[in-house]
UniProtKB/TrEMBL annotation:
The lineage of its organism: Bacteria, Pseudomonadati, Pseudomonadota, Betaproteobacteria, Burkholderiales. This is Dihydrolipoyl dehydrogenase. Gene3D superfamilies: 3.30.390.30, FAD/NAD(P)-binding domain. It comes from Massilia aerilata. It is an enzyme of class 1 (oxidoreductase). Residues 357-466 form the Pyridine nucleotide-disulphide oxidoreductase dimerisation domain.
């Protein structure tokens, strides 16, 4: 049992928390970060949902499964015959675990480098202490920390379907979906959102028959619908069976299978039997049992910690960032908020531009966007012009053998300022950065159209889409 005083205590060591801790330490504060996640050996597993059961392991499996699929089909077209191709799933999972561990260890190193004190255990707020707050830690050791500033970065948990709890054997959250030990013959996925599409893609590529059941009538309703339709076409061609507008009914779990009753989009009753079921219907903020009542911390109407635009709670000195507060549940959004809060504590003007946060779905083709969609602009009554350019007409995409999709640039009809960029296609995740930079600097479509892009690159499609805004693309 120890009692220690800090300037800043961060509860949660995910992308929001660990980055806030590092930035606060860089600014000269004495900083502690508390995280309760534990690895298979009982040691700390820093990095949060993102590192342990989110961004990193999903991308590791997406990469491995894509290699497997390419070796099976795409290599042939390149003149490479692969004989005796087989899947070593235990090795694929082992590699994923080692990628996770490298990231866990990386954060331990960064904490040491930046002199952030790490406490492995559960942190709970335990009332006011002088001008600050007390935070108790219970883990391998029991500690009491005090600090004038506390940053809550406790993240989120997967949402359960009422009456169907996760058992991570048959009914899987993201945690179980990343660790299935044998390829299921039939895999059901409820929710055609980001997790449903990414994890559905992984298991389809390695041989599962995947059926995705989505409640809403539109596919990827938040995505520009021209892009979403192109993606849906590609996923369907790959064999992902997607049913939109369904209403999930009874779910009955057996020892080795699960039966899902649902009404399809016409209202007709359907029954499907799956070997495994991934439920990916969104996530809920992690706010239970954190001692909020001891300091009077309030939640908003949706159950998130209530904060203003600058991540201040109603209790001066307590801040909250990342998935536990409003806004997109994305690692880079959490990080930006963490940095901005550390800078605000130091009296600086930390800033997060919510209009230029990029979104990426790491399927094949990848989907990435920043800014507003055509549907949003119509709803907002903004006059715009749009230009698209298909990867089919891009030399590098042809050389890669990956010509699905397009780049779409939307600009203000009067000022030409870029209002949104939407991409479906190869490495859209990397291509979107150019659009984010352009929008951050309030560039016009003409600016991108006049910038020299290397040839042959996929990024030429962005330049061509910008040229297409004024109907003057050169290669299509
Ligand atoms: P978290 O990462 O959830 O971290 C919270 C941490 O707090 C956890 O380590 C938890 O153990 C700890 N904690 C909670 N309560 C306590 C307590 N009382 N005491 C001590 N510790 C506590 N986002 C992207 O941007 N890109 C992606 O590719 C991406 N892929 C994803 C894939 C999946 C399958 C999932 C589930 C999510 C993905 N996300 C992705 C979302 C991303 O993981 C989250 O937005 C991000 O992790 C949020 O960061 P955070 O710091 O707010 O919370
Ligand atoms: P999501 O919000 O992306 O998608 C959930 C889907 O489930 C929606 O399409 C919704 O309409 C549907 N749904 C909800 N209730 C339903 C029901 N009862 N029946 C049928 N369908 C239903 O949530 P998801 O996929 O769980 O991911 C959670 C969050 O994690 C994402 O919103 C994102 O913020 C983050 N994430 C980000 C990734 C990335 O950046 N690449 C990857 C994975 C997750």
């Amino acid at each position: 049992m120890s009692e220690q005083q800090f300037d800043v205590v961060v509860i949660g060591g995910g992308p929001g928390g660990y980055v806030a801790a590092i930035r606060a330490a860089q600014l000269g504060f004495k900083v502690a970060c508390i995280d309760e996640a534990t690895n298979a050996k009982g040691g700390p597993a820093l990095g949060g949902t993102c590192t342990n059961v989110g961004c990193i392991p999903s991308k590791a499996l997406l990469q491995s499964s894509e290699h497997f699929e390419h070796a099976g089909h795409a290599f042939k077209e390149h003149g490479i015959d692969v004989a005796g191709l087989s899947l070593n799933l235990p090795q694929m999972l082992k590699r994923k675990d080692s990628v996770v561990k490298a990231n866990n260890d990386g954060i331990v190193y960064l904490f040491k480098k930046n002199k952030v004190s790490f406490f492995h255990g559960r942190g709970t707020l335990a009332g006011k202490a002088g001008e600050g707050f007390t935070v108790n830690v219970s883990g391998p050791t029991t500690d009491t920390l005090t600090a004038k500033n506390v940053i809550v970065a406790t993240g989120s948990n997967p949402r359960e379907l009422p009456g169907t709890p996760f058992d991570e054997k048959i009914v899987l959250s993201n945690t179980g979906a990343l660790a299935i030990d044998a390829v299921p013959g039939k895999l059901g996925v409820i929710g055609a959102g980001v997790i449903g599409l990414e994890m559905g893609s992984v298991w389809r590529r390695v041989g599962a028959k995947v059926t995705v059941l989505e409640g809403l009538p539109a596919f990827l309703g938040a995505v520009d619908q021209q892009i979403a339709k192109e993606a849906q076409k590609a996923f369907t061609k790959q064999g992902l069976e997607i049913h939109l507008g369904v209403k999930i009914g009874n779910i009955v779990k057996g020892d080795n299978s699960v039966t899902v009753e649902y009404a399809d989009s016409t209202g007709a009753a359907q029954t499907a039997v799956f070997d495994r079921l991934i439920v990916s219907i969104g996530r809920v903020p992690n706010t239970i049992g954190l001692g909020f009542e001891s300091v009077g911390l309030q939640l908003d109407e949706r159950g998130f910690i209530a904060v203003d635009d600058e991540c201040r709670t109603a209790v001066p000195g307590i801040w909250a960032v990342g998935d536990v507060v409003r806004g997109p549940m994305l690692a880079h959004k959490a990080e930006e908020e963490g940095v901005a809060v550390a800078e605000r504590i130091a009296g600086q003007h930390g800033h997060v531009n919510f209009n230029t946060i990029p979104w990426v779905i790491y399927t094949s083709p990848e989907i990435a966007w920043v800014g507003r969609t055509e549907e949003q602009l119509k709803k907002d009554g903004v006059a715009y012009k749009a230009g698209t350019f298909p990867f089919m007409a891009n030399g590098r995409a042809r050389a890669l053998g990956d010509t699905t999709g397009m780049v779409k640039v939307i600009a203000d009809a009067a000022t030409d300022e870029i209002l949104g960029v939407h991409i479906v296609g190869p490495v859209a995740s990397e291509l979107i950065s150019e659009a984010v930079v352009a929008m951050e600097f309030k560039a016009s479509s003409e600016d991108i159209a006049r910038i020299c892009h290397a040839h042959p690159t996929l990024s030429e499609a962005t330049k061509e889409a910008a040229l297409a805004v004024d109907k003057r693309s050169l290669n299509f």
